[in-house]
Amino acid sequence: MASGYRDRIEQGFEEWGRTVSAHPLPILVVCALFVAACIAGLPQLRVDVSFEAFLRTDDPVRVAYDEFRERFGRDERIIISAEPAAGDRAGGAVFDFAFLEKLRSLHDEIEARAPYVDEITSLVNARDTRGEDDALLVEDFLDPWPEDEAQLATLRERALANPLFRNNVISADSSSTTIMLELQLHSSIGIEELDLGGFDAEESDSEEPTPLLSSAETAELVATLNKIISDAEGPDFVLHMAGSPVMLNDVSASMLREMPRFAALAIVTIAAFLFFLFRRLAAVVAPLIVVILSVLSTFGLMGWTGTSIHVPTQILPSFLLAVGVGDSVHLLAIFYERVRRGDERTDALAHALGHSGLALVLTSVTTAAGLASFASAGLAPIAALGVFAPIGVMIALTLSLTLLPALVRLAPLRERATDASSTDEPNRLDRVLTGFGRFATRHPLPIILVSAALLVLSAASASLLELSHDPLSWLDDDKKIVRGTRHVDEVLGGSISFEILLNANEAGGVRSPDALSSMGELGENYETTRRDELIAAQTISLADVVKEINRALNEDRPEAYAIPSDPRLISQELLLFENTGTDDLEEMVDAEYRTARMSVRMPWRDAVRYADFLGIAEQDARSALDSYGQVSMTGVMAVLARSIKAVVTSLAQSYLIAFGVITPLMVLLLGNLRLGLLAMIPNLTPIVLTLGLMGIFGLPLDAFSLLIGGIALGLAVDDTIHFMHNYRRYRDAGQDLEEAVSSTLLSTGRAMLITTIVLSMGFLGFVLSSMQNLVNLGILVSFAISTAFFADVLLAPALLAVLDRRREDA
């Protein structure tokens, strides 16, 4: 940027400072109206932490999953396990009259009180298919209720002999039993109004899709279940709850509870340090007003546009807090320094805006441009960050250049007596900063060599990082959902599932003997053969139902648990089954017998652990069923696996785009190719060092921690531009290298140090969180902020010194 052009822009900012001083109230009114319009969207803001919300609505995996759920309902279940006593693994322990009475009471209580449940299944009403004479009977397992020990023993024998019961309604040794809840797919919001109108929802002229069950409705259900379980459990009736709906609800509740709490703690900490450093109330209140209104305005715009808060969105308030406070501190540090030197308030504001206004615009533009690269991400929440983080940055910039100086102008300003002879005397802070500059410019090679060694070691450590996508690991080990999930996985083999879909070439194709036999063999293979050290707890498909019917119609002989070879017999048996009044087939096959599903239940694991497994499992499914039609995989596990792949691909692509955008911007804004390229080294350093720290301590590289690089990059770019911009200013004024570096550190360096201290201490408050992802956020962001400062006050001057000497030698 040419010196003359830059001078004219800085002069324009000085004039703007005088305008604000002359008309602060109108500027306050305009800012208030703008903020009010944005914040009005907050009531429409929603939280969506579902697994599928990671993917864009047009993502093929998301489209397939949505189509599957519309056809067959939700594949996610809430599983409540029950056993007579903690640790009691006695075979058949659940077949006890007292225990079964408690089970029935719990079943009835859930059925009566739990909202938004589409179906509830337990031993009380599990499907019991029997043959009697020539009739097929489908009844509830405990109907009629057993009257003596002999009947109870018979029931136990029948339950253990039923493959569809094993690891489903009872554990393999019948020491534990379950209550399975299938939730409604769609929300009940607005249903009453439709009913009062006398029209069925499907007959409505509205083309708006029916919304899915909301987070608020799920929370209501989980709260009700927790109350019912708390009332029912005891020493001889031990209950555990698992399932992704409960886990996601707990993650959402923890996120909504702890993010505001620790954001408030960060704000209080920042306020305390701002007061300690500036010793003025206005220097605390004005920046906090700016940053809080920036965050609220950004989230309000998300509400207006219907963009939901998701797990990665948690990083947005923290990022905007850092950017907003940084902008304010750079202005206030110069303003109060000029006041200390005896300037009038108007002159001090004009000088602060003239000195830092252009730099603030440059930092905000580069930061916003880098973040905008996330908008192309395949993950919906990260793409949303790529839209709203840049918007938030620009709102923070706008308020920092308008609202902040207006507030400072109106705030009482206590004049401090100053000895004119002492205003130019460097204080202790000044001496520390100039000491950094002198050391870096006089000893550049040792600093560069040490920095290079740290970068190499960090890069080596970063190579040890492992990807992760496990929301359960964010919660404390003592959480009920964590203990419940581990218990259900241990006793019943799994709490999460994936789905294999067979779309046959013709109607009736999935009920052919060959297709059903292949489907049954595939299910048995999933349950008996390990793939990537993982094995299925249970599979259920149309093949299992046909086997069940065939055995019931053949005197319950074990050898009759097989697929008949006659297709007409299969059709007849399925017709008999439908005529009993059960609608269970609707969950497994469509009306034309063209599309069938196989549900495969697995233990909960980090989604990364399932990437290879699902690839092998899908390939095996294609090998077994491809000759009968089109085979595909879907379900919540498939969505999880796709999400982590999208995380890595999207963020790698986004960071490359960010560097590709920021680098030429840096060159253009600094007006020098070498200086612009050199400035990228301090920008990259905090990111590499932070990744190295993660590798050393074994912190996971997940959808959340990957975004911390965005904060590190944004703050590093801001500090680097402030440093380089002012360095060029002093060099153009005729100062030599060491003088220019010292002058820069005495002006913008003070603001950089204050920002580093304030933000580092603010983010460290997150280590008190019970959510591990927030703990990691606090540690890593604080570390990144600190290393960004040292990169700019040590490494950047050292690089400039080498560049300057090479220029002199040339």
Terminal-residue CA separation: 24 Å
Helix content: 55-70%
Name the average pLDDT: 86
CATH superfamily heading of the largest domain:
Multidrug efflux transporter AcrB transmembrane domain
Classify the secondary structure makeup into a structural class.
Answer: alpha+beta
Shape label: elongated
Enter the CATH topology name of the largest domain: Multidrug efflux transporter AcrB transmembrane fold
What strand line-up does the widest sheet have?
Answer: 2-5-1-6
Number of helices: 25
CATH architecture of the largest domain: Up-down Bundle
Instruction: Tally the structural domains.
Output: 2
Q: How would you portray this structure in words?
A:
- Helix content is 62%, strand content 8%.
- Helix 8 (244-278) crosses helix 24, helix 11 (345-372) runs antiparallel to helix 12 and helix 20 (607-625) packs across helix 21.
- Residues 192-206 and 417-423 have low confidence and may be disordered.
- With 810 residues, the chain is of the alpha+beta class.
- The protein has helices at 3-22, 24-39, 60-72, 97-113, 149-161, 191-196, 215-232, 244-278, 282-304, 315-340, 345-372, 380-401, 403-410, 428-442, 444-462, 480-492, 513-528, 542-552, 567-579, 607-625, 636-670, 673-697, 708-732, 737-764, 772-809, and strands at residues 77-83, 117-121, 127-132, 135-140, 177-183, 238-242, 496-504, 538-541, 595-602, 629-634.
- The longest helix has 38 residues, at 772-809.
- The chain has two domains: 7-44 and 248-413 and 425-470 and 641-809, Multidrug efflux transporter AcrB transmembrane fold, CATH 1.20.1640; 77-242, no CATH class.
- The two termini are 24 Å apart.
